[in-house]
Amino acid sequence: MWTIPRILANPACALLLFCLARASGASAQTFTSLFSFGYPYGCVPQGALIQGIDGNLYGTTPNGGCDNGGTVFKITPDGRLTTLVGLDNPNAGLIQTVDGDFYGTTSEGGTDNAGTVFKLTPAGTLTTLHSFDYKDGWYPLASLVQGDDGNFYGTTVEGGAYGKGTVFKVTPDGVFTTLWDFCHLSGCGDGVSPESALIEGTDGNFYGTTAAGGAHRAGTVFRITPTGNLTRLYSFCSQSGCADGWVPHASLIQATDGNFYGTTEVGGTNPGCPDGCGTVFKITPTGTFTTIYNFCARGCAEGSYAYAPLIQATDGNFYSTTFSGGIYSEGIVFQLTPGGTLTTLHAFCSKAGCPDGEILQQPVVQETDGRFYGTTEYGGTNSLGTVFALSVGLGPFVRTQPTAAKAGMPVNILGKSLNGATSVTFNGIAAAFTVESGSLIRTSVPEGASTGLVQVATPSGTLSSNVPFRVIP
């Protein structure tokens, strides 16, 4: 298993926390290095980026910043970066709620130095909602998810009643509840050390993975209700030689077909790496498991060690990254069809010094301009990580925030060039709306709407949401 060394150096802080990008021209498939991290701006980014309501991207670094403890940053799509605040080891990415505030976790800090849950306003005001105390969890590595009920749900890698991690709920006001203590079942059959974020399924339950434990001590896929009833759906290494993979570090996604998809760091059927090179898998809501892809099928030119979750893009294909492998052995961005055909889109460290970056733990995110954005942990001008963009020719779309709500509840629509929009519909039902900016429309779920695509008519054409919006009864 890979470990990441903590950066210990602490040079003097720079006064300027604003940098311009290095950009290149666009084409049908174009890779662009947007920013190289350095200590004043943060370094070794490990959390996924998110698109904010202002059209910019937001992320975290667990190291660097003025006190070398980590940062929250904003970066424009053309590469201008601003440090918003310093934090104590924010390993995970952020989430943004409909009111514009950001929420996240730190793996250290707080009253007992066991990690925190925090809120951050766009203006940079930081509020600690909860400090972990070991008994209720310790070392949260994953981002939060906001449930249909408005509360936040997450995981800790360690701590809890058995010291093996927890699932928790915290309200926007900071009222904290432990929902599950891992290793509760005999032999830790329920799993150990959940490193990844939960996702909320269309059934209203939460789904996740543990990196260890289960029937074969190789990790699990589980489902947990909002009230804390946990069901193990699958134990990895159930197949001979761990052909089904093991050590799933990443969170799941629920694709448009209703099934869940994920990755394992090691295992699989190709012996090109010690303990196997990793897999991509599919699992149904009832636990039927299928391996979709085994890495190193072509001598690791297509990457190895899938550490990051997948995303499903607007073309219906899956996209993600590998920790290493590729023709330069420093990781790739790949496309994978639902049928299991993999295409390498970019292999990192293509030039001396790795100016494009190297080593990836997190997925790419598809912004509403159609491009993919992501981070590398190392490489770049200062060898401390990069932000990059990748265009594969996909067109613009709109994204809703949140992706599910009841009739009458507020919804943000994120996009590009939304000025002049003439209509907003939820699965064909018109909604009243206000255009706040070229990147934001505010609306609410209209009465009579049903689950389906959200569409925005603009002077340049109609934009559809990337996923169906789910109307909650």
Task: Please provide a brief summary of the model.
This protein has strands at 18-19, 30-36, 50-51, 57-61, 71-75, 81-86, 95-96, 102-106, 116-120, 126-131, 145-146, 152-156, 166-170, 176-181, 199-200, 206-210, 220-224, 230-235, 253-254, 260-264, 279-283, 289-294, 311-312, 318-321, 332-336, 342-347, 365-366, 372-376, 386-391, 399-401, 404-405, 410-414, 423-426, 429-430, 433-437, 440-444, 454-458, 461-464, 470-471. With 473 residues, the protein is mainly β.
CATH class of the domain at 399-471: Mainly Beta
Number of helices: 0
Strand arrangement, largest sheet? 1-6-5-4-3
End-to-end separation in angstroms reads 44 Å
The CATH superfamily of the domain at 399-471 appears as Immunoglobulins
Describe this structure in words.
The chain has a domain at 399-471: Immunoglobulins (Immunoglobulin-like). The chain contains no helices and 39 strands. It has strands spanning 18-19, 30-36, 50-51, 57-61, 71-75, 81-86, 95-96, 102-106, 116-120, 126-131, 145-146, 152-156, 166-170, 176-181, 199-200, 206-210, 220-224, 230-235, 253-254, 260-264, 279-283, 289-294, 311-312, 318-321, 332-336, 342-347, 365-366, 372-376, 386-391, 399-401, 404-405, 410-414, 423-426, 429-430, 433-437, 440-444, 454-458, 461-464, 470-471. It has a 5-stranded antiparallel sheet, with no helix packed on it. Strands 2-29-28-27 form a 4-stranded antiparallel sheet, with no helix packed on it.
